Amino acid sequence: MKGRWMYLYHAVDAHGQTIDFLLIAKRDTAAARRFFHKALKEAHTVNPLTVTVDKNYTYPNAAKTMKKAGEFWRFTKLQ
């Protein structure tokens, strides 16, 4: 974006439809939590059974923190 490197967080549903996306400069646990909050705020995405993510270490950290805080459904599995 305008000559700056940005990471794209992109969420799609089981049918391949875009749920939400986020462009952000950092790829850290705080960014992952922010994206999870943004993507899971819709009524049809509140309690997903499975969330498929890439190998970035920030996703498990963010999910664990959010589960402890009650912000992420405790039965959701990361793949």
**Intertermini distance:** 29 Å
Shape: globular
* SSE string: EEHEHE
Mean of pLDDT? 87
Low-confidence stretches: none
* Biggest sheet layout: 2 strands, antiparallel
Count of DSSP-assigned helices: 2
General description of the model:
The chain is α+β, with helices and mostly antiparallel strands and 79 residues long. 28% of the residues lie in helices and 22% in strands. The chain has 2 helices and 4 strands; from the N terminus they run E-E-H-E-H-E. The chain has helices at residues 29-39, 58-68; strands at residues 7-12, 18-24, 50-51, 77-78. A two-stranded antiparallel ribbon has the order 1-2. The chain has a two-stranded parallel sheet with strand order 3-4. The relative contact order is 0.18. The mean pLDDT is 87.
Task: Provide a compact summary of the structure.
The protein has 79 residues and is α+β, with helices and mostly antiparallel strands.
Q: Helices, strands, pairings?
A:
Layout: E1 7-12, E2 18-24, H1 29-39, E3 50-51, H2 58-68, E4 77-78
Parallel strand pairs: 3-4
Antiparallel strand pairs: 1-2
